[in-house]
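Action item from last meeting closed. Structure (213 res):
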């Protein structure tokens, strides 16, 4: 699984349970909230700027309001960009398993919540030096989870970050895709800092220099 192999070598740490769950500041201005499928996500974003190759620090809390447990894959958060909405989405977990490697799954029992800290790398594919490329101006969090834990019990709480088992990955592929569900938060305004312009905010047009005289 290329995603997990990249995760093993990536300097950005994967989501880890916080030592003190339930400490999201509900009054913080840089907070994101989403509730879907009886699962709630609260998140705090540290900072108001984004730049290519940088990392965004996120603290998020997943509350399971269902009558059954849910599972979240222990993977590094991934980023993607939608130029139509100019929104960067940070994906937690994965909507598909690996081709060969399978990740550890974290269980959140019914009525309980888990708090995680993560660093999400901003890697956006945009044409270099293109004046017509819309720059990002917002960020949201999307949490992927498995709503039916039964088929994946062998991966819950395993000591390894991932296990290599191609046959198991093949067997679980369809079940994983069918049982994957998501919660997407609201989008927070962010400033895009273009490193090519010495850190200046791309959303602010540069003033034209006057000629001699």
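Sequence:
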């Amino acid at each position: 699984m290329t995603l997990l192999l990249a995760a093993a070598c990536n300097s950005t740490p994967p989501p880890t349970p916080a030592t003190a769950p339930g400490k999201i500041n509900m009054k913080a201005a840089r907070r994101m909230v989403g509730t879907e499928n009886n699962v709630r996500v609260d998140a705090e974003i540290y900072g108001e700027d984004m730049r290519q190759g940088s990392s965004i620090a996120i603290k998020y809390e997943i509350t399971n309001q269902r009558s059954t447990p849910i599972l979240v894959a222990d993977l590094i958060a991934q980023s993607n960009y939608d130029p139509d909405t100019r929104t960067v989405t940070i994906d937690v977990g994965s909507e598909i398993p690996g081709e060969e490697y399978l990740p550890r799954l974290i269980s959140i029992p019914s009525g309980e919540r888990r708090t995680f800290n993560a660093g999400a790398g901003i890697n956006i594919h945009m044409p270099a030096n293109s004046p017509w490329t819309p720059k990002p101006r917002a960020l949201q969090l999307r949490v992927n989870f498995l709503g039916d834990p039964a088929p994946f019990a062998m991966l819950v709480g395993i000591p390894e970050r991932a296990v290599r088992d191609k046959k198991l990955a093949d067997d679980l592929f369809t079940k994983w895709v069918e049982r994957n569900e998501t919660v997407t938060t609201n989008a927070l305004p962010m400033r895009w800092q273009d490193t090519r312009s010495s850190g200046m905010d791309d959303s602010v047009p540069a003033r034209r220099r006057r000629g001699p005289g």
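Note appended to the action item: The first strand starts at residue 16 and ends at 17.
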